[in-house]
Amino acid sequence: MKRSIVMLAMLFAFSTAFTSCRDQENKTDDVEEAAEDTGNDIEEAAEDTGDAIEDAAEDTGDAIEEGANEVEENTGMGGNDDI
Asked: Which UniProt keywords apply (predicted)?
C-alpha cells in the first residue's frame, strides 16, 4: 500500500515536471522573438531619429545662411537686390 502511494506521488511529480518544461520552451521562444522584434524597432527608431536630427541641422544651417544674406542685403554690405 505504501509503495503504490509513493509510486503514484512520484508519477504525479514527474508528469507535472515534464509538462511544465514543455510549456517553458514555447514561452522562451516567444520571449526571444519579442525581444528581437523590440530590438529591431529600437534600431529603426534610432535611425529615424538620426535622420530627423540631420534634416533639422541642415534646415537650421540653411535658415542661418539665409538670415545672414538678408542682413547683408539690408545693411548695404552686399547682396544683389540693389543692382
From this structure: Signal
